[in-house]
Design goal:
The protein has three helices and four strands. By secondary structure, the chain is α+β, with helices and mostly antiparallel strands. The chain has a four-stranded mixed β-sheet with strand order 1-4-2-3. A hairpin with a 2-residue loop joins strand 2 and strand 3. Helix 2 packs across helix 3. The longest helix is centred in the first third of the chain and has 20 residues. The radius of gyration is 19 Å and the shape is elongated.
Length: about 120
């Protein structure tokens, strides 16, 4: 039990330090989407990241943490918008990748301190 309490204090100290280093960043919290019978649940910081985020289609995407998955999703969308026959040729795939990268770079990413909460 003592170790768990010390870890909570370590994460709190880490968060305070990061907040003082990056005061211009938005502070956001990520927590498991688990149903509860209660309006609030007690939780503690378990992981803290300095990243950028965007919300697309009701999902929060983190730039550094999920860039590969986001790239795949956007590339698939671009490919479906442009082509009707699959698999794509090498030239078509290269074009889709270029368009997906442009789209990701053009998104309005918000700088944030991301705090994962553990119950």
């Amino acid at each position: 039990m003592v170790y768990k309490e010390m870890r909570k204090l370590d994460k709190t100290a880490e968060l305070l330090n990061i907040l003082s280093m990056y005061p211009e960043r938005e502070l956001i919290f990520m927590y498991p989407n688990e149903g509860s019978d209660h309006p609030y649940t007690l939780g503690y910081p378990s992981r803290i990241l300095i990243d950028s985020y965007i919300t697309l289609n009701d999902r929060v995407w983190l730039f550094n943490e999920e860039k590969d998955e986001l790239f795949e999703e956007i590339a698939d969308s671009v490919a479906e918008d442009l082509y009707t026959e699959f698999p794509l040729t090498n030239d078509q795939s290269a074009f889709v990748e270029k368009q997906a990268k442009k789209k990701i770079e053009s998104l309005a990413w918000k700088k944030a301190i991301v705090v994962y909460i553990k119950y």
